[in-house]
Design goal:
This protein has 260 residues and is an alpha+beta fold. The protein folds into 2 domains: 1-52; 93-259, Cyclophilin (Beta Barrel). The chain is 28% helix and 23% strand. Residues 33-55 and 58-71 have low confidence and may be disordered. It comes from Streptomyces racemochromogenes. Residues 1-31, 60-86, 236-260 are annotated as: Disordered. Pfam families: Pro_isomerase. Residues 100-257 form the PPIase cyclophilin-type domain.
């Protein structure tokens, strides 16, 4: 016969076992939730890395912004310094002449459409800012760009100031994916992915590229310059990836901006 004390102990033991079972089940579900969250976070991180990859078009705690071409062009958050005072004719056209190790690349800039951008690039070129710098990034899939303008050659450098976005509606209405086509021959500003974060980095489009209308289009490459770009692109990247340093090194030996 079971005594009342034995019965109480049995009930207490059963209660304890039920509590332990519930706790074990709660721990199991918690581990499962963490695993799902971890996997989802990994996917998000991988996606962001793929999109910025560089930054068509990628620079934290540095001076400038970059472009974000893997799925677009991007840069790091720039520091804030005053941009150059306006010193150009905002009704004129200018030519940006890049004498590079791969050949000469020229493009026309219309100051009436992008006065802040043209003014900044002329100011920088007059100070030899771009001389002896490398075009550090080539993208050969999704978008088709060569990215230049970083004095460090890493995708994280810039002039120490930012300039506003300009001319963003010139490429037409975005499609359902929120993209427009940046035609072959276009030169556009790289940025951090946020408005008004352009600096000195820019990208040269050698084949029509779908991108968000977030990158100031400010130049048009001449036919000879486009052929130079196409030859650089044909050689691919240094490691065979779709986004990386160009296999054919492109160093800007001298950059000049002149009024037409």
């Amino acid at each position: 016969m079971v005594t009342s004390d034995q019965r109480r102990r049995q009930l207490a033991r059963e209660k304890y076992e039920r509590q332990q079972k519930r706790r074990a089940e709660a721990r199991r579900k918690s581990r499962q939730r963490l695993a799902i969250i971890g996997a989802a976070s990994a996917v998000v991180v991988a996606t962001l890395v793929g999109l910025i990859a560089g930054g068509v078009f990628d620079s934290k705690d540095k001076n400038d912004s970059a472009a974000e071409p893997s799925a677009s062009p991007s840069l790091p958050e720039p520091k804030k310094s005053p941009s150059p005072a306006m010193a150009i004719d905002d009704k004129a056209t200018y030519t940006f002449d890049l004498k590079t190790s791969a050949g000469e690349i020229k493009f026309a800039m219309d100051a009436s459409k992008t006065p802040q951008t043209v003014n900044s690039f002329k100011s920088l070129a007059d100070k030899n800012f771009f001389d002896k710098t490398k075009c550090h990034r080539l993208v050969t899939s999704g978008i088709y760009v060569l990215q230049c303008g970083d004095p460090e050659g890493t995708g994280r450098g810039g002039p120490g100031y930012t300039i506003p976005d300009e001319n963003l509606d010139s490429l037409g209405k975005p499609n359902e994916q929120g993209q427009v086509v940046y035609p072959a021959g276009t030169v556009a500003m790289a940025n951090t992915g946020r408005p008004g974060t352009g600096g000195s980095q820019f990208f040269l489009v050698y084949k029509d590229s779908p991108l968000a209308p977030s990158y100031t289009p400010f130049g048009k490459i001449d036919a000879a310059g486009l052929k130079v770009l196409e030859e650089v692109a044909k050689a691919g990247t240094s490691d065979g990836a779709q986004d990386g340093a160009p296999k054919t090194p492109v160093t800007i030996e001298k950059a000049t901006v002149t009024k037409d």
